[in-house]
Amino acid sequence: MKLPVADPYLPGHGDPSYAVEHYDLDLSYAVEGNRLAGDARLRVRLREDADRIVLDLAGLKVEKVRLEGARLGKHHHRSDRLVLQFAQTVAAGEELTVAVRYSGNPRPVIDRHHGDAGWEELADGVIVAAQPHGSPTWFPCNDRPDDKATYRIAVTTPAGYRVASNGELVEHRRGGSRETWVHAMETPMATYLATVQIGRYRLTETDADGIPVRTIGPDDVDLAGSFDLQPQMMAAFLDLFGPYPFGSYTAVITDDDLEIPLESQGLSTFGRNFAAPVWERTRLIAHELAHQWFGNAVTLARWRDIWLHEGFACYAEWLWSEHSGQRSTDELAAHFHERLAGLDQDLLLADPGPELMFDDRVYKRGALALHAVRGLLGDEAFFDLLRRWVADHTGRSVTTEEFLGYADALTGADVSGLLRPWLYEMPLPARS
Question: Where is the Peptidase M1 membrane alanine aminopeptidase domain (predicted)?
Fold first, then answer.
């Protein structure tokens, strides 16, 4: 039986026949032994007539499945796909509720292009890094980037651990040797942006123009010169990109070192090695914050359009450098153009392929393309374009073609013509 695939960059994930409107997750986790038990309720709506739907769930055992709104014929779970076969065809537009009880020892999934992602044990806690294929390691989902839903995530752990997740903490209760943390994300979110972080952490909270900015990490982490810059970064990006799209922002610092930081909606995760007052660390703190506008509020509809996230967030690093009195965007653009010119010219920015979608050239070439647009439009029109793009598309999934059409219509300039060689041709364009 052939199962659906939503995006060719991520085979074996996603079902285009339906959309999830809300995930309600109740999780219980034993840190000792890495044991997860979950109850998930998904409110879904069919996008087409269907006699089945397929959910993604990897490495965990399904114990019970219930279906409301239609009669369930049978279900089976293998190869990380949970297939729910209806007793009869259900019409497009119908709303269903799927309830799945599951348990097991969660672990990352490994993809030949993207490496490992998902639920991962730390020395004393958990990190969930789901981009792009790790969400099925901890909850049943329709794992495609263009399917956004609201979330309630409740996690019960042994006492003494703090749980950080997407959205606002709406309930925290203690009972005996257990604690439960309940978060709600009311702004629609793609599955790969959902996360849970568990550790023996303390909370530090500041304010940036009315936006709560929180840092959660071990007691002994020194935030000076790195994470204590986040309120200034937030203030700068509010001016450049427009209103912050969520209720708050949280940076989690794990007790372990991490190779790279991790993007989630309303939350970013870093290793303790990022708490250092040096540019190579602080630029990535700015990068992850910028993703809240470009990647989380406005999300790609297809993985091929990853430059809409990474090019924009990389350019935000350069903007922060300029804003904070370090190297200007012109200097950085000249530096990275020279560097890219010396590398292989085999990357198509608008469709890099799954093996190159996180190549550093996507980040830098995307940033250079935006710098070229800024040169064409001038600062006032360029930043107006960025602010309007976010304001008009928050909560949505978008494509490169939509961005080009929007930019042309809003500015009256030939932005798409300027960007065509940057996006659709492999040779690096000359700097303008």
Answer: 231-422
Amino acid occupying residue 291: H
What residues of the chain score a pLDDT lower than 50? none
Pair (354, 372) in one structural domain: yes
Contact 327, 280 (CB under 8 A): no
| Phi and psi, residue 14, nearest 5° | 85, 145
Q: How far apart are the first and last CA of the chain?
A: 53
Gap between the Cα atoms of 117 and 135, Å rounded? 8
Question: How many folded domains does the chain comprise?
Answer: 3
What 3-state class would DSSP assign to 212?
strand
pLDDT tens-place string over residues 212-262: 999 999 999 999 999 999 999 999 999 999 999 999 999 999 999 999 999
The rounded distance, in Å, linking the Cα atoms of 50 and 46 is: 7
Write the pLDDT tens digit of every residue in 197-213. Answer: 999 999 999 999 999 99
Q: What is the pTM of this model?
A: 0.97
**Who's near 302: CB < 8 A, 6+ residues apart?**
7, 9, 145, 146, 399
CA–CA gap between residue 100 and residue 61 (Å, rounded): 10
Do 73 and 160 belong to one domain?
yes
For residue 283, give the CATH number of its domain: 3.30.2010.30
| Pair 155, 73 in one domain | yes
Which residue type occupies 107? Answer: R
